[in-house]
Queue: 2 jobs
Job 1
Amino acid sequence: MDANQFETKPQARLNKILGIKLDLTTWLVLCLVSIAAVLRLVGLSTREVHPDEWYHVLAGASWAEGQGFTFIRGIYDRAWPYTLSVGLADLWLGLEGFVAGRFPALVSGILCVWLIYVLGKRAASPAVGLIAAALLTVDHMGIEWSQSARFYTMQTACILALACLFAGPSFGAPRASPVKTAVALAAALAIALLALMLQVISILGIAGLVLFLVTRTPYFSWEFVTTPSRERTVIGILVIVGAAIGAVGFAMMWPELRTTQAWAAQDANNFLYYDDYLRAMYGVLWPLTPLAILMGLSHSRKAVFIALSVIVPVLLVQSLGGMKAPRYIMQAVPFIILLWAVGLRSGFLWLAGMIRDRIPFGDVGPGHWVSNTLALGVLAFALSGNLSFRTSAQWTIKDGIATYAGQPVLTGDPVAPAIQSASREVAGKLRSDGTMLMASDPWFQAYYGNTAHFALINPRNDDDVPLNYERKTGLVRIGNAQELAIAMACVPKADILVLNKKVGTFYLPPETMAVIEQNATPVDMENKVFSLYQWDRPEDQADQDCSVVNEELAKQV
């Protein structure tokens, strides 16, 4: 039967004009992907820079110039596949700066919308895929990290692609083609490896999906468990051995799992951190997740199980872990949305059936339109009742107005004009006669490049040993007032550059500033964004043991 046999007249006309044959569902998902692209493009190049973006942007540009993944004086090879894609965007597409850095995240974020549709379609139905794609299209986290030069959307796309493969006919079908299964297995291994190279915690989503795959084998059934056989004995032994190894491995990794960097220490023991976040961002949908699971089981057990296989390990392990930030559970968010989509679809069917049974001519005419209108009303309520989707709407309106007024989409600078102006002024006042630069922010360090030798770090960000050389920047980290005093006593000259405004965790505490203000000379600045100080070591200063400082400086390239 031809899938286009039941196409509508407008749909048939559009297919004829374009010379292609697509069904209505495909047209709808293409519209959603297009909307997702617009939402993620608007404001792409002008959204305020996140400090961590500098690493991928400059290391990618360095790779494009044939100098490897270098950043300032160091090497930044964390999540190197993403940095490589930034360099390729520079070389192949002619993009540069933050547009090149954010382009791979943008493409990955758009791809996630298509992938969740495919997953919803394979695991449940095209309608579930469309609802999930619609929710992810306007999701705040999906838009935010699609406009940041970070690897989170690429990692999420990998987990979604792996789920699409596992939910497809090549795995678990009784008469699956061996060739197709082999190709799918090779693709799954490659995708899983890429996800792990982007971020090691991808192992949580991957392990969950592998467990889901196991549930599709004949070994995962009550009949197999209760029927004595040699095969059951072997599988049972393997399960016991695997569980023992897993328990030992978890015990060994527990101290590392509980490790917390200083900036996140306040949430180390908040085991409801992610529940609080999801409740705040999805105030209507998140509390209804248990109901969505129950309703979804009646519609598609497969979709519910594949969603839970990722959600449970990611939320459980990350909640027990010490390091916490919303982006660390991003790989699970599309699967949470999939659960909601299955639940909403099941609810829509129940609501539509109830209305059509009670309204004359329920299958057509008034009953048809009333049921669909109410269903859309429920979806609109689900969207408007969640901070995530309202925030996306506010951002889109603000950026859309700015774009309509002439703000560039693929050109522009995410750095505030005031900071740029102040930076140019600082550049003209830095001394170049062998003076070392101490800077208090990754942005400063990146902007002034190889001029910087020391990085002034807020104690909340400092987890290294005192005056420690950092490989990814090639700078010596100064984490507190005592370390700063030692470093100043061990260098003849230094320019010290700090940010006046307290932003995030990149400002210096009062005790560190006191060392600077008491010993260094302030430089008059027209722009008050930065403060610049000059340090000249007095000739009569007492000798200081500088072995640690000299050893760490010697590591710089």
Job 2
Amino acid sequence: MPQPQLSTSTIRKLLNRCDADDFNKAQTAKQLRISRSSAKKYITAFKQSSLTLSQIDSLPRARLIDRLFPGSKHQAPSPRKLRLLACLPSIHSRIEIDGLSILDVWREVANQCDYKYTQFASLYATWRSEHGLGRISRAKRQLITVSPTDRAVFKRWQRSHNRRQWEAGVALLDLSSGHKVPAICQKIGRARQTVGRWRTIYEHKGINGLDPLFRRTKYPSPSFRKLRLLACLSSVHSRIEIDGLSILDVWREVANQCDYKYTQFASLYAAWRLEHGLGRISRAKRLLITVSPTDCAVFKRWQRSHNRRKWEVSVALLGLSSCHTVSEICQKIGRARRTVEKWCATYQRVGLDGLPVNRIRKLSEKTQILIMEKKERLIKIIHETPNAYDINRASWSLQALSEAYEKTYGERVSRSSTSEYFIAAGYKFKKAKKSLTSSDPTYREKLSKITSTLSCLSSDEKFFSIDEFGPFSVRIRGGTALVPGDQIRTIPQRQRSRGSLICTAALELSSNQILHFYSKKKNSKEMIKLLRRLITRYRDQKRIFVSWDSASWHASKLLYKIVDEMNCDEFRSRHKTPLVELIPLPSGAQFLNVIESVFSGMARAILHNSDYRNVDACKAAINMYFADRNRAFLERPRRAGNKIWGKERVEAVFKEENNCKDPRWR
């Protein structure tokens, strides 16, 4: 069997793919750009051989072909190929040592090897890979020899402030050091041809041949027509800046004198401005007008008017009188250039009376009567409920009013007209707001007691805000999340609860520290448990104040009895505990309980988008949240509230205007 003409990489890709479950021979052959018969031949040979996929990737081409086709005979190389292989070592030395390119070497040996350039380059690349020499370097090097005397001069040029000397010194020294020409060109910002020209000049003429590169250009003296133009440029400048003419208008005036085309004239004038420090030419068009003091007062009154057209006209004309450009004025008032120019021409020709500011749409008496009748009918309709007009709504909308009017009176009124009529009558759509109020008759007294206690709190006293979070179920929860655009997030509507939790916690307001534990129920026993933990942890304090809402288990007889026992002298002396003072919030004022804000922040961070496996995983997340919060407030107490824990609803400070409770999580 003759040796097939497939490359080694193609053979390996084909044999690696044929072992897959979803292998398709026709599709694979099409992707590898080979015939199906060739693919079938190689796959059959691979299955009949004892080769493995790892051996296919490691074996060289010759051994791989021998293992696949054991009976095949390799064709002997031709005489011209043998001649080329014999002289490839000398060719390699010419390329690597002498710095010649493959094209130059091919031109030298073209008569001997009898190969085209592409065949020659391919055989040379194969020879390099077989001898472990890597790929051919495409970077071109031009080696030159620099004498010690010239080297000293080039180094002095490198330190010179003359840009051309620095470029030539860097280029020729780097060429003598064997650097690549593209790297030198990138370093000095010159083209390859320029560096090659410097190299050729230096090799043929030496360092003296580079001197013409650094000679300064001798500029010829200006012509007579240029001198005439330079003499009148001062008057040209005054005509442009003071009289407000354009460069084109001035050129038309002096075209017969200066004998320059417009582009040459504008270029010379721009150069003259830069030489005299006058900056660039302003291309913005200006329409200078003069506004009398009487008209100026009228325009300023128009600027303060609610009439849009008066405001536009006054801003435009006052801006033109103040030398603003037309483009700036058009951008400010949102009008076209032609409109502003028309207003300017009208004002200069007629004055204030010709300006289009008092245009009002005049309606006939019949139309005005019809509009008033429509308004009165709509007011009558709105005094009744939508159900009276067979519209299944609890409140009126613009569409519902339009439909009711058409049903009743047989003529149509659009939604926009309905809206306009009601706005003129003083009607507005307003949304009802939920008021946060307390029905406690002693609201002011309880609130003043809390605020006075907080304002007079000493260093050995602590104030606690106490409440329970829950019970809440552990389940998959929704929310806003960052997902790919083609993905739709869904959660089951009906879920089996993985357990429920009640978190009982106390927030110390002066240091923003949280003490929490988990309860099975909300009752007085859990409150007593919390109080015992507080007096144990803060036994170094003189007094602790406890504030909570008016829940039944917060004001039970059992709780007050235990608090009295804790405050007796015998108990305090024996256990060395602080005095406990209860300061309850007004009834119905949960929005003032500061710990509610902490709970809302915890819920947004921990429960939002959550999917905990069980109750223990949820507890671990809550514990970590409160631990991080306590640590952060201990390290940076002054930055607490807004900057560290921005997910909390309000800052953890007691204020009368606070709304701490978040209805979305409680």
